[in-house]
Amino acid sequence: MFQFQSRQVFAIVCFAGLVSFGTMSLGQSEEKPSVKQIMKDAFKGDLLRKVGTGQASDQEKAKLLSYAKIMGEASPPKGDADSWATKTKAFIEAAQAAVDGKEDAPALLKKSTNCKACHGPHKP
């Protein structure tokens, strides 16, 4: 049988603790914003306007795309899930076009982010 000295036991316990802590830290990620938070930041804030007018940085464009994808993963607050999926898919594609620098991105964003078109069927 193996007999451990106190230093060896201490080293093993410390190593196991560090591995456990590191694994826990990797598993924790930032909480995704809610649809309400996205509306406040992207639509009521400046983000969508900046991306739609070509004044946004690459980081801001990526943030809008991230928001669009989060919305696509969310369930609609009310209304038909298929309608929600169609509308968020168009938003994701428009945000991706902006990230990719496509010329038609502003028009796609304007069309896919029509407030009344989504709020009518989906806003509680």
Task: Please sum up the structure shown.
By secondary structure, the chain is mostly helical. The protein is 72% helix and 0% strand.
Number of domains: 1
Biggest sheet statistics: none
Low-pLDDT stretches: 18-28
Judging from the principal axes of the Cα atoms, what is the shape? globular
Share in helix: over 70%
Q: How are helices and strands ordered from N to C?
A: HHHHHHH
Average pLDDT taken over every residue: 84
Total number of helices = 7
What distance separates the N and C termini?
A: 67 Å
Structural class: mainly alpha
Please count the beta strands (DSSP E, at least 2 residues each).
0
Report strand %. Answer: under 5%
Q: From the alpha carbons, calculate the radius of gyration and give it in angstroms.
A: 23 Å
Architecture overview:
The chain is mostly helical. The chain has one domain. It is built from seven helices and no strands. α5 (81-99) packs antiparallel against α6. The longest helix has 22 residues, at 6-27. It is globular and about 35 Å long.
